[in-house]
Amino acid sequence: MKISHGMLYWAAALAGTLAACGGETTNNNTTNNNNSNTEVTCDPTCDADACMVCRIDGTTATCVSACGEGLTCEAGQCVAPEVVTCDPTCDASACMVCQINGNTATCASACGTGLTCEDGQCVAPEVTTCDPTCGDCQVCDTSGAAPVCRAACAEGLLCVDNVCTAPEVNLGCDPACGACQLCDVSSGAPVCVDRCGADEACGANGACVRAGFHSSFEDLAGPFADGPSVTSACVGCHQDEAQSVLHGPHFQWIGATPGVAGHEGDTTIGKRNFINNFCVSVPGNEKRCAQCHAGYDYENAAYNFQDITKVDCLVCHADPASGYTKDPKNAGRPLPTVDLALSAQSVGPTSRANCGSCHFSAGGGDNVKKGDLGSALKNPTRDVDVHMGAGMSCANCHAGADHALLGQGVHNPVSEGRLDCTDCHSDAPHEALAILNEHARDIACQTCHIPAFSRTQATKMNWDWSTSGNKTRGTDGVETTTLADGTVVTAYDAIKGDFIWEKEVKPQLGWHNGNAVHMVMTDTYPAGAGTGPDNPVRIAYPLATIQDADAKIFPFKVMRGKQPGHLTGNYLIAPKLFGPTGFWGLIPAAADYTPEAVRTLWTNSLTQGAVLAGQIASGETIADADWGWVETEMYLGINHEVGPKEMALGHAPCTDCHMNTDFPWADLGYACDPITNPTTCGSRHVGP
Predict the structure, then answer these.
(1) Mutual orientation of helices 239-246 and 227-235 as an angle, nearest 10°?
(2) pTM: predicted TM-score of the whole model, two decimal places
(3) How far apart are CA 237 and CA 84, in angstroms?
(4) Rounded-to-integer distance, Cα 499 and Cα 476, Å
């Protein structure tokens, strides 16, 4: 069958959408906010006859009393000792309660500032939280551009032990209530009551922490001396699962790379020996890099990757509310302040927050590396990501059998199995318009459905190490800049150099069939490469072209940088950055800065790093004349931040691509826009 250009042009204007893999439900005790698209529920249902309402803020749902201090609940109304009532009765479905102050009875909203009423429950307009957590008698107001703590007490009321009271009724609890308690004065005598539910425990930070099935296990009662002690307890029941993680790439940092040219049958490359143009390499910097290792105590190359007690179960399975956090500078160990017993007892299914504790901050900061993975995905709306905005977690797509994690990228091509949109959606998802399914034969779903990435948060697009080491710049070596939308970002940091940040980035398009190049530390680059942005050293990139029948057009972030390269050996040098002898630890103070001193520091750092990375033998050195700054680029696949169908390329009109002089037809291997002449331009839509 041949498809005319008229059909191509007009039919593509009605592009469809990819439906999410999960459904949405609503019942009387569940709020599925149209803005947040995330289910939050009070279970069991709050007792309206006891003047209890379900207050939902962020991801927390709590039954709370609607009555102020000194008031009691009678037949669903808050009354003073002298029985004064609201007549007519307040509308509970509108979250209205009878507030009585003295002899005055008034129907008032039970919802705090920034909350709205939906089906009798107080909900935040977006599932976003304040950081740090709001104080007593405050609520997190998410109605504006950024969440902010606001007073919950009405005018004229005072806050006493987290209760809004009239000035003449300022009874409080003595001694003060605990971190997860409130002072209840509704019965006359003040008493501390628990805020946490029956299946929750109180964390040291006052958060109510998941404490279900595992909380009763004697082996998890603690106290625990360290992370491996927790893992030893977990392994008692989960030996097979721990073995799967132990041998997987999240712990090993190497694995199968079936799509990497020259390493198709290899299982010995990965994060341990890849080069990149962010923090460059792991060797010599393990103690810092291991903050995102799924293990404990990874300090150097002598690490025992076969010790099952080193597997970190908690980083993936502890309730984030438990406060479990990795120490960023201590070999993947938890912070000393972490309550390991509480974290161990809180384990359960993984969440976006668990995965995001590493993946959202990869590359040195929030949304820095991938551009489509930042903290905006922790609690997103559907406009940010239709899948996660519908309540899906990372595991809904990425979880495979036996703790395998599916997915494969160009920048990190270690694979436990491919992951494709068609695993959930059919290969012909556009039921209304067959022409769009014709496009889907050669165009990846992501290409149309992620027309721009970093739509909510800025991402780094260029990292220039050559300017690092200068603390005379800015404030103690740090400069900021403001992007067009008002976002303030770090434009220079003495320990890392200059950065270019962007938001609403249009992806680079390229053909991809799963095959790619990715440099490891022993690889060399072509002589003469790296002399400029138009002649970069290509660290990682897809290999396919328009001629490959199994390839499709995919979207990519192209990260560009400037980093150290060996001028005669033609390899990218692994620097020693972290630790007392590394570059970061020896940057001179502003008063001592000279370009020559920083150059010498870099030379020493590169010698140390090259030895640890196996690029030169122990005892060899890299001299000042041996190295220079080379331009690099690295492709990273864009797969998240899938937008609603209205956002897709070609939705209205198809001139997003066709008849668009800015569209990169030539870069993709087409002679011209295929809509003008499918046969001569090289359209792959022509034919059956």
Answers:
(1) 130
(2) 0.74
(3) 59
(4) 17
Query: What is the four-CA torsion angle of 375, 505, 538, 535, rounded to 10 degrees?
Result: -150
Instruction: DSSP letter for 146, please.
Output: S
What CA–CA distance (Å, rounded) separates 510 from 552?
8
560's CB contacts (< 8 A; 6+ apart) are: 277, 461, 462, 463, 533, 536, 631, 632, 633
pLDDT digits (tens, 9 = 90+) for 107-142: 888 776 666 776 666 665 544 566 777 777 777 666
CB-based burial label for 368 (10 Å; 0-12, 13-18, 19+): buried
> What is the rounded distance in angstroms from the CA atom of residue 52 to the CA atom of residue 117?
14
**Side-chain half-sphere CA neighbours of 599 within 13 A:** 10
Q: How many CA atoms, within 13 angstroms, populate the side-chain half-sphere of residue 143? A: 10
Q: Which residues pair with 63 in a beta bridge?
A: 54
| Rounded alpha-carbon distances, angstroms, from residue 106 to 91, 101, 102, 110, 121 | 12, 9, 11, 12, 19
Per-residue model confidence (pLDDT) at position 199 = 83
The stretches of 178-300 forming alpha helices (DSSP H) are 227-235, 239-246, 249-252, 286-289
* Token pair 């992501």: residue: 446
Greater model confidence, 121 or 494: 494
Higher pLDDT, 119 or 86: 86
Q: What is the mean pLDDT of residues 494-506?
A: 98
